[in-house]
Amino acid sequence: MNVSLRSTPALLNMSGNMPPKVPPVFNEAYRLAAQRVLADFEPNDLIGAHQFCGSERDRAAGARFVSRRLPEVPSVDRIVVANGTQSILVMLLAGLVGRGRQLVLEALSYPTIRTFADQLGFGLSPVPMDEEGALPDAFEEVCRADRPAAYYAMPTLQNPTTATMTIERRRTIAKICQRYGVAIIEDDIYSLLPREVPPPLSAFAPELSWYVLGTAKSMAPALKVAYVVAPTAAAATERFWPGVRATYWMCAPMNASVVSTLIETGGSDRIIEAIRVETRARQAIVAERLVDADLRTRPDCLHAWLSLPNSRPASDFLADVRALGIDVGASSTFAIGDIAPPNAIRFGTGTPRDRAAFERGLDAIVKVYLK
Ligand SMILES: Cc1ncc(COP(=O)(O)O)c(C=O)c1O
């Protein structure tokens, strides 16, 4: 038995960027939805057979959910229900990009994409960025030189930098994708908390776009339900029909059903609003305590990107907050390709269990920052 490991006190996780728990609202909405599913459906009908791309009802609920962001409700046959965004990404990256081809993405991005590139054998073409995300000229240059098959896009509250593209930037990037025939895989997972955000990139090039909207960051990470809108019904079938590659991406029907009921009855709206309110309250405290810091975030963002002075390497900062029992994320975690990561850290606001734990963690970050 490893006594020293067992006696190590647990670090407070502020490196993740999960949504805050909102127990009174979530518990009531989820219980009601789960009870209603069990009352309205015969369990053996619901669960007794595969529902490959999602049942008709679940796909219709998905169409309604994504229409929170898209200009119109997409037809149900363009929707696929999956057990989370990562599953959708694996299917799309394997099908649209695949071994030996290139994926273009921002130079700092969701690190899981690197894992998928290693597993699936495609290359990564990172693009330098400003506070909106990919720089258009550099993006076009990569499209010309590397001929990427697809762009992994996160134009709203980008992970990790919180970069958000203006409508103008979205239009420009979409046009470049059209010019070079680059498919768009848009991961819009952080878009539901802000009240005012531009329309998705996909709205500017729908014929090339795979629009992905998961519930992990707006409702709960372990719901394991995400929706993808394919450019056409035929494309949805071509990429996701169960005979295509693996089938592990399918959503368990009970999960899909409960989320469908949450969407149909407004339970999802109540959960999202409660998470928004708690996130804004935590972000107000961040803004107050880190008032003069070089901090990039938004009132309804689940993470913040803190640049450090050159005299304070991120690795030292990480070690100092760790010594105070807090875990935050290093910028190197998010670096794509050979770029030198900026001297910065990312911390999440939602993962500490309650406001008191969050303030304890933030106090430690502020203390180390001001040292
Ligand atoms: C950009 C992005 N996409 C997807 C996910 C995970 O989504 P899921 O749990 O639905 O696979 C994360 C989680 O950190 C993320 O940051």
User: Helix share of residues?
Assistant: 40-55%
Bound molecule types: pyridoxal-5'-phosphate
Rg over alpha carbons:
21 Å
- Per DSSP, the total helix count is 13
Instruction: Find the CATH superfamily of the largest domain.
Output: Type I PLP-dependent aspartate aminotransferase-like (Major domain)
Question: What is the structure about, briefly put?
Answer:
With 371 residues, this protein is α/β, with parallel strands linked by helices. The chain has helices spanning 3-6, 23-40, 43-47, 56-66, 85-97, 112-120, 136-146, 167-180, 233-240, 253-265, 267-289, 314-323, 355-370; strands spanning 12-13, 79-82, 102-106, 123-127, 129-130, 133-134, 150-153, 183-187, 209-214, 226-229, 295-296, 303-307, 326-327, 329-330, 344-348.
Overview of this structure, please?
With 371 residues, this protein is an alpha/beta fold. The protein folds into 2 domains: 3-25 and 268-370, Alpha-Beta Complex (Aspartate Aminotransferase, domain 1); 40-265, Type I PLP-dependent aspartate aminotransferase-like (Major domain) (Aspartate Aminotransferase, domain 2, 3-Layer(aba) Sandwich), CATH 3.40.640. The protein is built from 13 helices and 15 strands. The strands form 4 sheets. The chain has a 7-stranded mixed β-sheet with strand order 2-10-9-8-7-3-4, with helices on both faces. Strands 11-12-15-14 form a 4-stranded antiparallel β-sheet, covered by helices on one side. A two-stranded parallel ribbon has the order 1-13. β5 (129-130) and β6 (133-134) form a beta hairpin. The two termini are 38 Å apart. The site of pyridoxal-5'-phosphate has 12 residues, from α5.
